[in-house]
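so ive been stuck on this for like two days lol. basically i have the seq below and the ligand is nicotinamide-adenine-dinucleotide, smiles is in there too. i just want the complex predicted, nothing fancy, no docking runs or whatever. if the output looks off dont worry ill sanity check it later, just need somthing to start from for the group meeting slides
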Amino acid sequence: MVNIGIIGCGHWGPNHIRNFSGISGCSVVACCDLDNNRLNHIKKIYPLVKAVSDYKVLLKDKSIIAVVISTPTSTHYRLAKEALLSGKDVLCEKPLALNAKEARELVFIARQKKRILMVGHVFLFNSGIQKMKEYIKNKTLGEIYYMRATRTNLGPIRNDVNVALDLAVHDISIFSFLLEKEPVMVNATGTKILRKNLEDIAFISLHYPGSVLANIQVSWLDPRKVREITVVGEKKMAVWDDLSATDMLRIYDKGVIREPYYDNFGEFQLLIREGEVAVPKINATEPLRVQSQHFIDSVLTRKNNLCDGNNGLSTTKVLEAVQKSLARNGEAVKV
Ligand SMILES: NC(=O)c1ccc[n+]([C@@H]2O[C@H](COP(=O)([O-])OP(=O)(O)OC[C@H]3O[C@@H](n4cnc5c(N)ncnc54)[C@H](O)[C@@H]3O)[C@@H](O)[C@H]2O)c1
């Protein structure tokens, strides 16, 4: 039995408690939050889970093998470091840390202490994104030309990090997963509307090796909740819409072909090719459940996981370049 402790029971933490509680061979034995209202809320739903206000109680408890850190981003590094040093395996919410230096140190400690470190890049466990990856890998889409992500909503508004660290982190991790490459350069512009120090809206361009361009639009000041990714390939195009109940993934058999002109030797005309739209069957499973199971498997087998510390570190490096570019009003920054 893997005994788990959850640190942070705000908006997201209870989802971890619910998912880990549903996995056989795993038991959520304790949780912690600084806010008593949150603890009382958890006690009502999970009366058997010990609820405390000091995370050190969880770290000192020898029966707890792993902890989940679901506190604000600015606390991830400190709490994850302490948890790893206490001998716990750690699943840390995204992003792993505020910058690459902190993330690198966490990876180092995890290796030194032989602890499992995983980051909650939950969209890598989304069945639509996994299907998209399958189509890219088996060349159904052909060579990838560009990718575009939109992630908007009205809130939730964070107080410790800007919208890039909070939301674009998902799309950066998805793009790297799909392409199996890291971007080499970024440009990002953003605007601070609600507060003077944090961007609420950001437009980010990522340049990948092989001239693949990707763009991310993120905002927590938008009338519509959108979670969409478009991947345009040489042969086909794909659109993932996380909020669609019926067609989470659509594959468009569309493209542009180059035909030689008959009367003008050596020149080409570009013709639009409009084919059918396919909606592959996708078994929708809750991505957080799959992520939780993946973490438990990793804890039991001591094998690396899909979003291990290094994966969290590489996303943090990209985010650090994004922060620099935002500060320099869109200047190109190498990753
Ligand atoms: N993967 C996803 O899709 C997803 C979605 C939402 C949030 N998140 C991540 O989850 C984390 C939490 O987000 P949230 O929306 O629940 O935030 P939240 O502010 O609603 O909750 C955070 C909770 O942590 C508690 N806390 C802060 N410091 C603590 C400490 N030292 N010890 C114990 N408790 C402490 C706070 O009291 C609060 O209740 C963030 O890192 C966020 O990025 C991930």
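The first strand starts at residue 2 and ends at 7. The radius of gyration is 22 Å.
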